[in-house]
Every structure is written in structure tokens, then in C-alpha cells.
């Protein structure tokens, strides 16, 4: 097929390169999906907008990550249980949820089916 596009590349060569790149990345992506750390999960909460700390200076992200880890573990990440709790509970914001979790007033779960789909949106 004749080269196309701004770079004048053969589309078949581009498809082959993309396929090979995806194949080369598979082991790394698989490892990243199955390994996380508390630091990574806390960073996710901060990126989602969770800021501040309690009166003793302990960040709300630490409280929330620890509560999720203690109840459902972190091997699946904490986004799904946290977003599920926001959708199904009375907490209007991530900050409210973190404060309630620090007081032991949140029951986290690892949702499945349509509940998981809703939490992912």
C-alpha cells in the first residue's frame, strides 16, 4: 500500500509497529496491574483532589488508604472501593469520606458487576 499521512509512512508498517510495541509492553503492563504500593495509592487520592490533614498533621490520604487496605486490601487498588463508597454512601466529597474513614465509619467493599461498572465511570 502507498505511504499516507503527514509523515508519509506505510500504514501496514505502522500497524505492525503498534502490534509489536503492544506485545513488548505486555509483561510490564501485567506487572504494573498486579503490583501497587501504599505510596502509589495515596498519590492517586491526591491526584483525585484529596488534600489536607487531621489536627495531628496526618494526611487524609493516609487515613483513607489505610482504611481501604485494612478492609479490602490494596491488591486491586483503592480507586474502585473508594469510588464505590462515594456512590453508595452518604459522603458528598472525597474529603468527607476520608474523615469518616479516619473515624472508622465507612465500610469499604470491592464491588462487582454493575456496581463496579458504575464506580469505574
From TrEMBL:
Top-rank taxon: Bacteria
Q: Give GO MF terms, alphabetically.
A: catalytic activity; cobalamin binding
The chain positions of domain D-Lysine 5,6-aminomutase alpha subunit read 7-113
Q: Which residues form a coiled coil?
A: none
What's a Pfam family this protein contains?
Lys-AminoMut_A
Question: What's the protein here called?
Answer: Lysine 2,3-aminomutase
- Give the species: Actinomadura bangladeshensis
Amino acid at each position: 500500500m502507498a505511504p499516507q499521512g503527514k509523515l508519509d509512512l506505510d500504514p501496514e508498517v505502522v500497524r505492525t509497529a503498534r502490534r509489536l510495541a503492544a506485545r513488548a509492553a505486555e509483561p510490564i503492563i501485567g506487572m504494573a496491574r498486579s503490583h501497587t504500593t501504599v505510596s502509589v495509592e495515596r498519590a492517586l487520592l491526591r491526584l483525585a483532589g484529596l488534600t489536607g490533614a487531621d489536627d495531628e498533621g496526618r494526611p487524609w490520604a493516609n487515613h483513607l488508604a489505610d482504611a481501604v487496605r485494612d478492609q479490602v486490601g490494596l491488591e486491586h487498588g483503592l480507586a474502585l472501593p473508594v469510588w464505590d463508597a462515594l456512590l453508595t454512601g452518604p459522603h458528598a466529597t472525597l474529603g468527607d469520606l476520608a474523615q469518616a474513614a479516619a473515624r472508622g465509619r465507612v465500610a469499604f467493599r470491592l464491588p462487582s458487576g454493575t456496581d463496579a461498572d458504575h464506580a469505574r465511570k
